[in-house]
Amino acid sequence: MRPDLTDVQLLRELEPVVERNLNRHLSMRKDWNPHDYIPWSDGKNYYALGGQDWHPDESKLSEVARVAMLQNLLTEDNLPSYHREIAMNFSLDGAWGQWVNRWTAEENRHGIALRDYLVVTRAIDPVELEQLRIEQMTRGFSPGQNDQGDSNLFATSLFDSVIYVTFQELATRVSHRNTGKACNESVADQLLARVSADENLHMIFYRDVSAAGFDIAPDQAMHSLHHVLRNFKMPGYTVPEFRRKAVIIAVGGVYDPRIHLDDVVMPVLKKWRIFEREDFTGEAARMRDDLGVLVEELEEASQKFEESKQRRLEREARKAERLAGKR
């Protein structure tokens, strides 16, 4: 059995793959300008410049859309932490470094565009948004972070990082796209479609680099895949009141257990042929089998959520009927 490769060895062996995928990314990417997707004519001054500060009645978005937009933006705001994480794990040398910096530059425009849209359209309280931004960025982010913000839950390796961001980028793409639809507003839908397209190309890069990693060191990669999926959390879980917001987002159909399983987990596992490969041995083979168990658990959780969601919607419908009857 081949001994585990060090991260330095993996970086070196994967660099040609990174260079090819970087060149492909640069040939496929479509540059866009955040300012083109902001309805500037809808804007007006706030109190400090003689205008009026925000009032809840000014928001034209539904609760689901507001919460999802806020969650997405606060997730994007932690870009400095994400840059630090991938720079530490991928290095800033050669093709790896070129990718890290290109990825960061493209990701940065997402937060710019989302914030401009929300502030100009007065969809969300900008004071609360700034307070949450400061708190979220102060907490930072690490894939090994626990609910209290401590970063020592588990150590991360190169494989941990590149496999984690494959799922995370796909989940983010799905979340942004569904949020755009939930906004029921053409400008927001166009903006989030552009953001989603970026996230999709980023996912493809990480997915294909990971695929090469499975070919180079299948058992080692499987250990990381099992580790990542058994402990998976989205970067936004450090956002204040995450659990409450996650429920609103899930019930609203933006991102729920079924979407996570069908649109995020399974497409990647199928692309990597995880359940078809025969090159896993020993503990790695047992971990692959346990991923089959995890998929069954996620399926059961999805069914339970759908049943719970239906009961909740029925309760809300009955409550609305009662209120209507009292008028």
TrEMBL record:
Domain of life: Bacteria
Sequence segments annotated as region (Disordered): 304-327
Gene Ontology CC terms: cytosol
Cofactor-binding details, from the entry: Binds 2 iron ions per subunit.
An MF annotation (GO) of this entry: metal ion binding
Necessary cofactors: Fe cation; Fe(2+)
Residue positions binding Fe cation 2: E107, E169, E199, H202
UniProtKB keywords: Fatty acid biosynthesis, Fatty acid metabolism, Iron, Lipid biosynthesis, Lipid metabolism, Metal-binding, Oxidoreductase
Keyword Lipid metabolism tagged: yes
Gene Ontology BP term (one): fatty acid biosynthetic process
Positions annotated to bind Fe cation 1: E76, E107, H110, E199
UniProt-listed InterPro entries: Fatty_acid_desaturase-2, Ferritin-like_SF, RNR-like
Gene3D superfamilies: Ribonucleotide Reductase, subunit A
CDD domains listed in its UniProt record: Acyl_ACP_Desat
Family: Belongs to the fatty acid desaturase type 2 family.
Record note on quaternary structure: Homodimer.
Name of the protein in question: Acyl-ACP desaturase
The organism of origin for this protein: Mycolicibacterium celeriflavum
